[in-house]
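Re: that chain you flagged

S.,

Sorry for the slow reply, it's been a week of failed gels. I finally had a moment to sit down with the sequence you sent. For the record, here it is as I used it:
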Amino acid sequence: MSARLLVLMDLAEECPDLDDLRPFLTDSDPEVRRTALSVLSETTEEWAEATPLFAAALGDPDVDVRHAAIGLLTELLEVLVPGAEFAAALRANATAAEPAVRSAAIEALWRHRLVTAGELAVWFADPNPVVRRTVVGGFTSVDALTELAAAAADPDPEVRIAVARGIAAVGDPRGAVSLLDLTADPEPLVRAAALTGLAGTGCDATAASVAEGALADPAWQVRQGAALALAAADPDLAAAPLIAAVTDPNLDVRKAAVRALAERIAERRDITAALHTALEDPDADVRAFARIGIANSGKEL
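Prediction finished late last night. Pasting the structure tokens below so you have them in one place:
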């Protein structure tokens, strides 16, 4: 351990203020700088002055210091005091060479509500899919439905999954159009996310028909998503396919179907009968949802 680091460790015991730590934050030794950032995060009460320093550390020449800053920006989210200097440092690093830094800077900007949909759209051109997923989170945070719809054509399936989840989180019924397009995606997890998302945007007759067809998909995740979508559909459209899904070979699909029946449309006698069938399911959660539905229906066979 270097002498300079020893001095810093001793100082940390005395709850140093920001002025005491500034020389260590710019020390030539990256280990000293990294440790100084950690000490600052634990001891400072001067959050307005300290906040820009965490953002600036994203541009440190040492990778360990940069990654320490990435972690602290997330850890300190609730106590950081965003201002013009903080925002400027983040924007400067939104085009950094390292994808992890770009992603962290962009995420901090949207989490602190310091960014517009237009800025995010520029950053969505990033070659790295992790960064683009972060931008999708930003689109979601500002309810940028138009930008999310455009992002649904991204070549990376993880980005498309993020888009589907983002559209669902926005919860605007107009987003269902993009989700319906994604239900035909070649990747099963994208299809599953799109179907699940329809529960957030609303599952109209067209969507319910798509979800019913998806209950025959070979991927259980897709069938589960279809059951979740049908939970938000008109009971007259959803009841029959969900009753059929109660005997699906996959546990998670059965659970989603039984829960949908129990929570939304258990008052129908044919559904009560299906829930009685589910009382014999080998899974305890399925049986529990069935009991809840039967109790809520007020009907016995």
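What I noticed first: The first helix runs from residue 3 to 12.

Talk soon,
D.
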